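Chapter review: from sequence to fold.
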Amino acid sequence: MERSKYQLILIFVLLSLTSLGRGVFNSAFPEQMAGENSAKESRQINSSFSVQISVERSNSPFKQQVYQAYISGKMENWKTAIDAMEKQKSNQPTDILELINYQYGYVAWCLGNDKKNEAKHYLSLLDNNLEKLKSLSGESAEYHSYTAAAYGFKIGLSNWRAPFFGPKSMDHAEKAMKKDSLNFQANMEMGNIWNHMPAMFGGSDEKALSYYSKALKIMESKSEEIKRHNWIYLNLLTLVGQMQQEMGNPYQAKKYFEQALKIEPNFVWVKEELLPSLKTD
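The token string follows.
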């Protein structure tokens, strides 16, 4: 779809006025979600900053710590992990990419919980690590995907930046797909774009779902070791379930929610809110 520069600016202005800064980690706090948003808004908040853990990074010593923080909502443990990783000052691209993933997630949580000063601090670290990743690995699909997200965070911090950073975010997301159309995160970011773009400018739940579904297939093609204790896998299942629910397919939604609980029976958000509130009668 051909879009003018001015349409892109308006799109991102609108996005910035609909809680663009609120991130996926609201899902770990069902008591905060209840009563605050409509089903559509809740799904948008959950997907706005959906993040890819590097699916090849299955043996990280921090993976379990971050996973437990996600399913329980104990974000102080997430913060402890990224602080420890930052202190290591690794120059290995895989380590840097993993740290970017976790810093990205923590910034999203800070924005969603009105911790803007903390968000600014970790976003600065995220920007630095993106530059380091670029210097070591070039402009990969992951680099472009996370850079697109970083611009989104900056809009979340200051709405007036939307006309400047919105088109840049879109540009990097598209570059990520051009680099690797089978990249997990690139598909997640394109799904986010279609999900949050207003319908009057071409936004489409169906197109968003197609990208999310493709990302899910990519994840499910990975080894059991990679999928085990992988928080983004759970997040993707719940996101697709929410979309199915919003589109009037409660039985499909239930399938995805139950799949998430089969993988992780202690996933608080699905266990205590999403599945019990789903009406399939």
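Two observations follow directly from the output. Residues 1-53 have pLDDT under 50 and may be disordered. The two ends are 39 Å apart (CA to CA).
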